[in-house]
Model the fold of this input.
Amino acid sequence: MRHVLSAVVQNVPGVLAHISGMLASRGYNIDSLAVGETENPDLSRMTFVVVGDDNVLEQVRKQLEKVVTIVKVIDVSSQEHVERDLMLIKVRAPLGRRSEIRELADIFRGRIVDVADEEVIVEISGQERKVESFIDLMRPFGIVELVRTGRIAMVRGKRGGQEPATKSK
Amino acid sequence: MATTTPKRAAAALQSGADILVECLVRHGVEVVFAYPGGASMPLHQSLTAYKDQIRTILPRHEQGGGFAAQGYARTTGRPGVCMATSGPGATNLVTCIADAKLDSIPLIAITGQVKTAVIGTDAFQETPIVEVCRGITKHHYLVTDVNDLARVMREAFHIATTGRPGPVLIDVPKDIQLAQIIADYDAPMNLPGYHVEDRKARPEQIAQVAAAIKRSKRPVIYAGGGVVMGDASGELRELAKKTKIPVTMTLMGLGAFPGDHPQSLDMLGMHGSVYANYAVDQADLLLAFGVRFDDRVTGKVSEFAKHGKIVHIDVDPSELNKNKEAHIPIVSDIKYALSELNKIVEAPEDLGPWLAQVAEWKKDNPFRLGECTGETITSQYAIDKLWQLTKDRDTIVTVGVGQHQMWGAQHYRLKEPRTWCSSSGLGTMGFGLPAAMGAKVAHPESLVIDIDGDGSFQMNIQELGTCFCEKIPVKVLLLNNQHLGMVVQWEDRFHAGNRAHTYLGPIDNPEAIGQGCADKPAARFPDFVGIAKGYGAGARYVSKKSELEDALREMIECPGPYVLDVEVPYQEHVLPMIPAGMTVKDLIKE
Done:
């Protein structure tokens, strides 16, 4: 099973090394890890995608909470949440095929952010599945280079009345 | 600060080194084990300035200093402090830090570091010791601003000693030690992610445990190092008295309950007693207090205590359901949980048949003294004799790692917590002598005895020099079988007795390939009596049972450090034994 954990950590040197070292030394399988500052410069947020059963998740969570510089850990995937990947993909695009790529990028609500003689760079963000579908569609053109951020995720805000989130599924 | 006159400010200026040492004083530190070097010289200069408040002991190896600090911490519950220079000094502390992590010992390790300007340039004696130690400390600091130092020290002591204790490393570059500032000793801690104070069992959890006890027919208490570290030995004894439930202890838990008490089942696990392992196997309720279901305790974990309910109380949430799922898992300070439980607990209704069964197992399967016919002294016999001679006095026992350690655990029936120092989780050979040193410094009135093996002893034998020069009169009962006995035992059991680098004498001796003919190697190596005397310690060699008691008395009465070299056979195996990963059904008695 796949879980998304979000950890607020103190923004001090070595935290990333500490956490990634702990996860590696205990043999946990981390699919993705994204780190960035929060609105408070003293704190950073790390988002992990962990694969494993409930026992693994419980241990990962407790071991993370034990790290002194980790302020709190939440299991985002246990609640209604939004998650996103960001990808930059450089695709071979000779003159005649650019419009095809542009059309596909539009359908995926992506943007072409760089155009060169033989290649274009497309920026795509969204859920993992969407990003992966776009990669598959680009394969026939020839993928020159690809870079993705780790997963980031956020719990949805609380709303009165019925849950709108159920509609989107 | 605008109102502070320059004169007052100048009077209060202190170097980073002075601030660090002053922090030690303010935290009640009375002794540090410190080995100087280029990057830690300012700290040592400051230590001389504070010599009336803090005793500085110079070990003969940083590892000796680290384990001495552990011996201090294990026998007092207060943090032990060790100090080393950068590079090799720091890396020599690594084993002590890892050891303290696995046994949850409050250890403050301070290392000098190269100047901040050259960190990362592979400077002379530079190692990234914080990087090296990340995974083996509870927390760690590289101080890069002298203004942080007082706060860091405060945080370090808080983290090392609260919740589940553990080692904290503070790496201090030399320029930080030399920088002059006005320190703010009241700077608040900045630990937004560290909350251990609220770890208390809820009343309904306590009631659940009390109900489980009341209903149980075959309960057993399984007490570990957490009970000792958590100062909950008194509460444990009260619970045992109220409920009559038998108590078994882990290697770290020894002393939590009196070993000579009728309810004691002694140690459980791989080399634990038959009766403890049978009782845990048959229990319908296992009360696991301050333990971590270590593989040396459980063997095959799925088969361990599978007939009963498990109550697991520990202060570290990550221990619950880590190795073994508990039916009633409780995160709590153990002293609090047991004292609350004692307020409402009632004894199970009819423990009679169970206690009779346990008593029968205990009667039928005592720990044995081995083949000690005639004048042969076995390790077990020697330890038993030592126990007879010292049981009524205030005694602290430390051990190395190996057969002698297990025999010490089996035969030296400890009465009180914090009278036993064993490197249990990491299993570090060479632990015994330096740990004894630290224990003796903390308890000058106690008799402190290192029960050691010849392999372990030689890993930190240089600390005899510290014992003599610093006037720390520890005793070493050296059970000398000329072999690495525990590995020999496994060779005998699992490798058809093929000797693979387990003989400690010269390689041209037939013993080196397992072809010695006598039951003891003819030539003995090295000359421990000579070595001990060279270091200024008293020493004697015994090989005959008839001389043992007199020699032990001489050792105990000797005013200075003493090494008693006892010749023991290497053919003895530590029994009983449950081979690694096996179950109580595979228990070897003979």
Helices of chain A lie at 15-25, 54-66, 98-107, 128-138, 165-168. Residues 92 and 141 of chain A are 6 Å apart (CA to CA). Strands of chain A lie at 2-10, 30-37, 43-51, 70-75, 81-92, 111-115, 119-126, 143-148, 152-155. Chain A touches chain B through 22 residues (CB under 8 Å).
